[in-house]
Amino acid sequence: MVYIQTILMQISIPYIIIVSLIGIAGNVITIVMLSKRSLTKNFNNCTLIALASTDLLFNLALVSRCLSDLIELNSDIFCRLLSFFSHLAELLSACFTVHFTIQRFVAVKFPLSVFIERKNYFLHYSILTLFILFGIAYCLLLITKNQYENCQEELHLNWFLSDALLSFVIPFTLIAILNLLIIFHLRKTCRNNQQLIFTKQSKKNFLPLNSKRKSLISFDSISQAKLSETSTVTNIKVLLKTKIPIYTFKILR
Question: Cβ neighbours of residue 61 under 8 Å, at least 6 residues apart?
Fold first, then answer.
């Protein structure tokens, strides 16, 4: 059993280092690419840069932890710093993900609010700053109020529950609720658009039928008028033919 654990430790540490290095490279490229765009015009880029920065910090802390395990570094200060940065990255990543989901929900629910939010860029920066300050204060209290032995943290129950609530339960619940609201709103708008398209098509189909009916009615009236004209003309001709012989007979007498 011990032999299997040692093999798993030897395999897991290089694996974690390789995956973390790939994540570091990807996050650096993301930060560089998004930084080239204007942050005041598109606040989603600012939130995505903050998310990439927190993921970069977490990957750096993870690589440092793996290297410290390989060289068996058991410095108390170093272990507390690693714990601080890892907890800070987890907490800020959850907060920034919630903030980005809120922005997406507002953009879907109120599309015209995007033009208003461009003028209120100070609000977004202040929210991100408050998240960072809160995360730093919380993580400092967490590493000072708990103990570390052999670079392994031993959290008290209240700190463990608070860390689980702030880093996972509350953000995951908010993200799930907001995504469900986005899905319901998109389905509702799709149904409304389909109804509008159906009503427009029905109106277009109804107009040619009315025009055909009107043309048939006008054609019937015209034909009736022509028939009446022809009948009157024929009647006049018949009368003229009948009167002419009578007149000639009188003259002969």
Answer: 82, 85, 86, 89
